[in-house]
């Protein structure tokens, strides 16, 4: 597409930057990009690649803020635009994130189908991310051995591609899987590596999630004061970034119950259910209820 007065390259760079930063600064990215059809979107929509990246950025930011309906709509718009313009990398990006949204909404089998049926034949870093996304869904389905095998394959591919943020994500999720299996030393090792990698990559929000998960492992092994400290520190870090994770309240509630703080646990549990229901996070909502 021809460029007018150099505008499209500038706007494309802005969209690409928003896409890179969407997970780390979700509230700021949503404010920056605004509403499709509003001021600034005429320039964004002038080029299919730019428009697809902008929709992806909004979808990622909305996912981090638990606005799943918004995220699903924008990932769908991104995929439609990318498919019409024959942009396979952006099609794959949309499909990967649609699978995550479906999984968060409790639609686990459709999420697997999204990975298996919608994506073009993935290669390189995309193939690695597909395998790791598959592992996360298998983990939520309780298929532990299959999940560990997928994580092992995905981690090897991530390291080969030099994708440190992707490696951190694998290690964070695998650390939780180890915690559920009672392998607490392995869980702490994975989470410490994940935290270091996220900080090196400049992703403070994901580092905060990892800190929360370290609290989860501490709670599982009986260190309740350590768990509560980790939860509170992670919540403060998320709040500084304008993010609230209602699913994290479930872990806080469970730890309060283990500490026999029943009234406090009931209050946190009620708040968790309200926020999870509002966000449409059906998988966690069932646990909350």
Describe the model.
The chain is an all-alpha fold. It is 80% helix and 0% strand. It has helices at residues 7-21, 26-33, 41-44, 48-64, 68-84, 88-104, 108-118, 124-140, 144-161, 164-180, 184-200, 204-220, 224-240, 246-258, 262-279, 282-288. The chain is globular and about 60 Å long. The model is unreliable at 1-7 (pLDDT under 50).
Distinctive features:
disordered N terminus, 80% helix, 289 residues, mainly alpha
Outline of this structure?
With 289 residues, the protein is an all-alpha fold. The protein has 16 helices and no strands.
**Gross geometry:** globular
Number of helices: 16
SSE order, one letter for each helix or strand? HHHHHHHHHHHHHHHH
Which ranges are low-confidence, i.e. pLDDT below 50, for 5 or more consecutive residues?
A: 1-7
The major β-sheet equals:
none
Overall structural class, as computed from helix and strand content, comes to mainly alpha
CA-CA gap between termini: 52 Å
Strand content: under 5%
Mean pLDDT: 87
């Amino acid at each position: 597409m021809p460029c007018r007065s150099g505008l499209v390259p500038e706007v494309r760079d802005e969209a690409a930057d928003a896409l890179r930063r969407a997970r780390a600064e979700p509230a700021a990215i949503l404010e920056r990009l605004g509403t499709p059809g509003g001021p600034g979107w005429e320039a964004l929509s002038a080029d299919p690649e730019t428009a697809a990246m902008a929709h992806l950025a909004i979808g990622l930011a909305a996912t981090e803020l638990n606005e799943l309906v918004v995220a699903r709509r924008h990932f769908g718009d991104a995929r439609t635009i990318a498919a019409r313009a024959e942009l396979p990398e952006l099609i794959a990006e949309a499909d990967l994130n649609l699978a995550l949204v479906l999984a968060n909404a409790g639609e686990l089998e459709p999420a697997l189908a999204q990975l298996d049926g919608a994506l073009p034949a993935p290669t390189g870093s995309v193939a690695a991310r597909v395998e790791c996304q598959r592992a996360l869904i298998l983990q939520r389905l309780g298929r532990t051995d299959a999940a560990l095998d997928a994580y092992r394959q995905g981690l090897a591919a991530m390291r080969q591609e030099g994708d440190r943020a992707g490696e951190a994500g694998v290690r964070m999720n695998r650390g939780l899987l180890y915690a559920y299996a009672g392998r607490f030393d392995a869980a702490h090792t994975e989470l410490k590596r994940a935290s270091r990698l996220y900080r090196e990559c400049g992703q403070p929000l994901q580092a905060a999630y990892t800190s929360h998960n370290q609290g989860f492992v501490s709670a599982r092994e009986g260190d309740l004061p350590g768990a509560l400290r980790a939860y509170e520190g992670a919540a403060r870090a998320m709040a500084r970034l304008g993010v609230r994770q209602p699913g994290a309240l479930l872990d806080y509630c469970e730890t309060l119950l283990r500490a026999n703080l029943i009234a406090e646990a009931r209050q946190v549990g009620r708040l968790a259910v309200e926020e999870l229901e509002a966000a449409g996070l059906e998988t966690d909502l069932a646990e909350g209820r």
